[in-house]
Amino acid sequence: CFLLHDRPIHMRCDDSVLLAAAGGPFPLRRSRGYVPGPVSLRREFPPVLAVGGHLKNTVCLTRGREAFLSQHVGDLDSPETMRFFRLTVEQLARLLEVEPVLVAHDLHPDYLSTRWAVESSGLPAVAVQHHHAHVVACMAEHGLSGPVLGISMDGTGYGGDGTVWGGEFLVADEESFERAAHLPYWPLPGGEAAVREPWRMARSVFGGVMGAGRLDSLGLGLWEHVGRKKVELIDRMVERKLNCPLSSGCGRLFDAVAALVGLRAFTLYEGQPAMELESLAMRANTRKMPVYPFEAAGQVPGSGPLVPDLGPMLEAVARDVAAGADPALVALGFHHCLARVITELGGLLAAHRGLNRAVLTGGVFNNRRLLEKVAAGLRRKGLKVYSHRRVPPGDGGISLGQAVIAASQRFKQGS
């Protein structure tokens, strides 16, 4: 049944979506029923507006010791959504009866939210790194002050060094961060096209580990399904580094594995391969799970960002797929190996830096199996682990982190 009406909608508000994970409610989308309820802050700030990211956009406005996130605005890809974005900013300021004195935005210069903040808001603007905002959003909802070990796993975030970040281990507080470790870089053949066509990531990731010749010798059907001419074109692009920006995105790793096991060569919506890979892993018999190897980071802690060697795991995955292994078992083995990678690297960094608190954030931690395995592993290493309870771990929560970071940087305690 459908209940319909012909009344105009004054202010759109999508349904909230929650998951039962990690011992409590876990918000995937925070909207109806939660907005405009505030998040309490550790200290009082002048009013700061934060305009979020490009996908799953929300905005945030602070008032005293409270931060108010808007309802889910959505992906800022259309003129209609941008109009709703501007209306939401105006409505939130009017509802709270505050005029912001500062605007915070993502570091990415081409996000439409960034352009609006810099060009149209009329306020002094502060750029905030994407994964730092993820970490501080989780810190803010738990009332934490830094430093903490922030483990931020997602698909894409502007790194500020000419690369795309997304598998990050940060030592962070409310004002600054250090990139202590990250997942390996992989080329994104065709840039955004590699996100829409996960087979490109499979070719980039597994070809980068094994070499195109050895990969082809396995006789995987994916390449014939896609077409040899397309595959050869991608090989040339990667070899010549043409339109292949580098990414450490954890989400892109999920894309590559999902494509290789036969789930998804082309996507219909953002995050689809990772969700389907998680669903596949949930159906596997855990008693038959393969245990994939990996190599710990080779550098001495403190000599630069640590990078784990995922080559042994990825080659084992490719060989299992080629041997006709149950795709569900391959998916399960990948999940558990990645959780071990994150746990081991996080424990190593925490011990070296003298940290006893870890924050798990970023859209990849919407994956319940990964979240719970990593949280349990870090607790066994003696860390107190925090995950999201009031705002989403994905981009729907970064406006909170942006607001706190910008306010902490500009309005220091006692100044």
Please, could you describe this protein's structure?
The chain is an alpha/beta fold. It has 14 helices and 14 strands. A 5-stranded mixed sheet has the order 3-5-4-6-7, sandwiched between helices. A 5-stranded mixed sheet has the order 10-9-8-13-14, sandwiched between helices. A two-stranded antiparallel ribbon has the order 1-2. Helix 2 links the parallel strand 6 (102-106) and strand 7 (125-128). The termini are far apart.
Give a topology summary.
Blueprint lengths: L16 E5 L2 E6 L8 E8 L2 E3 L9 E10 L9 H18 L5 E5 L5 H8 L5 E4 L1 H13 L5 E11 L5 E9 L4 E6 L3 E2 L5 H4 L1 H13 L1 H6 L3 H6 L1 H13 L5 E2 L2 H11 L11 H11 L28 H12 L4 H27 L3 E5 L6 H13 L3 E3 L11 H13 L5
Parallel strand pairs: 4-6, 6-7, 8-13, 13-14
Antiparallel strand pairs: 1-2, 3-5, 4-5, 8-9, 9-10, 11-12
Helix pairs in contact: 3-14, 5-8, 5-9, 5-11, 9-10, 10-12, 11-12, 12-13
Task: Report a brief summary of the structure.
Helix content is 40%, strand content 19%.
- SS class: alpha/beta
Low-confidence stretches: none
The helix content, as a percent range, equals 40-55%
Specify Rg, calculated over alpha carbons.
21 Å
List its salient traits.
single chain; 415 residues; alpha/beta; five-stranded mixed beta sheet; 14 strands; globular
